[in-house]
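User: I'm curious whether this sequence folds into something compact or stays loose and floppy. Could you predict its structure so I can see for myself?
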Amino acid sequence: MFQSFEVTTRPENGPPRLAALRAAMRHDALDGFLVPRADAHQGENVAPHDERLAWLTGFTGSAGFCAVLADRAGVFIDGRYRVQVRRQVALSDFTPVNWPETRLADWLKEALPEGGQVGFDPWLHTLGEIETLRAALDGTGIGLTSSRNLVDHIWADQPQPPLGKISPYPIEYAGQSHDEKRARIAADLVAACQTAAVLTLPDSIAWLLNIRGADVANTPIAHAFAIVGETGHVELFTAPGKAAGLERHFGSGVSLAEPEAFTAALGTLSGPVRVDKGSAPLAVSTILQDAGIEIAYAADPCRLPKACKNATEIAGAQAAHLRDGAAMVEFLAWLDATAPGSLSEIALVEKLEGFRRATNALQDISFETIAGSGPNGAIIHYRVTRDTDRALQAGDLVVIDSGGQYLDGTTDITRTVVIGNAGSDERACFTRVLQGMIAISRARWPKGVAGCHLDALARAPLWLAGQDYDHGTGHGVGAFLSVHEGPQGLSRRSDVALEPGMVLSNEPGYYREGAFGIRIENLIVVRPAPSLPGGDTAREMLDFATLTFVPIDRCLVEVSMLTEAERAWLDAYHAEVLDKIGPRVSATALDWLQRATLPI
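Assistant: Here's the prediction. I'll summarize afterward.
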């Protein structure tokens, strides 16, 4: 199994660790210390060595941070984790703080009215993050101080940094050589009159050099830093053993150095050097500034090219989703035929991974499968453990959010199914979520529109009923890379214009704490939209093509709530599911699929 069901943190471990951290703060004359989820590469998935937030607090979510003061410790979490955090931390010592509704600066002002010094590790926070916080604290007497990492100081049995093997990523999947990619980035630097760019995001480095790694679970990246020069030459800083045997793949355009050489190499550059203040650690800017090197702050030059998939990558994504869709259909057919009393959430996760493994192409799961039944479905990023495993019961809604890593693509799909019959309230909520998903699927927009402009389309049916969900409607997805990829997205915060080749999720939901959860998710890819009769011929329009083909539970659809156009979309989608997936599944699954895709 790629997935483990062991409990990795316990609330009772938090208080003594918090006490040890406060003792270290007193020793260093600090009034506070910030503990982020992120590692030095701003990773969402972090290695055991970097699980500082989980080790200290018990909270295992993929986003959040803790602000520790002498008399309080706030765990800042967004809407995805507000149920989860209360289960995982010792509420006697840690206080969940709703973020971004409550800003860290405002919390610090209230907690430190007389001022004080708050320490942070400059390798774990970006310049943009610290600049914003300093500006908000200006004039309060609260200072931010670069510090040694106090969690590492007190974590006696901290695991060692990862040493996963780096492998070449074949051109048959990448669609473009790393020579071509490096030349493209170099041309961008020359056009901007910049001499070099510092790369700190592992997925940017993986894309640029056509490599994949094994340093974190579920995401094939390698921890590394890189400097790409105006000639296209790249210096890659990573542990020597990880890159052994890559000399032929890299050729003369890439040189290798140990991670410890990165700091010294920064000091030898001549400016202007491009640094992304939104992703690079503050320490990078400090080193360059101390060496008197001019910095040109701009976006990581690899992020946008990486996000706009080429034809080979899109074809790979399509193939991966057909393979993954067949595994999902086998799973759903099995689930429908199995008596609910004999199943638990862990059984679902194990069985689904088994069907994906049967494709003989699965490299890993793309994230830990979410299988939340009944009230557990309301925990947006629920992770089932031996302690929380719940038996499926008649009437339960079950949220199954999962994905696979294949050499030709990364998948992410959510389906909500009912065990037996659903109540009218659950059916109405499900249908509103479906209407939002259909609205995004059918959207057309002029070039230049960003995800923040489309997000409301998915929420409108819920808003009309006084409902909403506390997560973005969609995130970017990589090509055998991160299942959560930037800069594209479908959310209020996503101001990046959508461009052809961008792959995103389309996943509205609804969650009622203590009762049930609902989410429906397909992956979609941006493409040029065909012209329409009467449309502006000079106006470039875009729309989405669907990548995911798996039936939506018709038992949960309140047909009377759908418009004629929504019914037509659902029937057409199901017809396409049957056409594309039917030839790929067993006779038993095909029989189920034919019934599951009947017109409504």
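Summary: The radius of gyration is 24 Å. The chain is about 35% helix and 20% strand.
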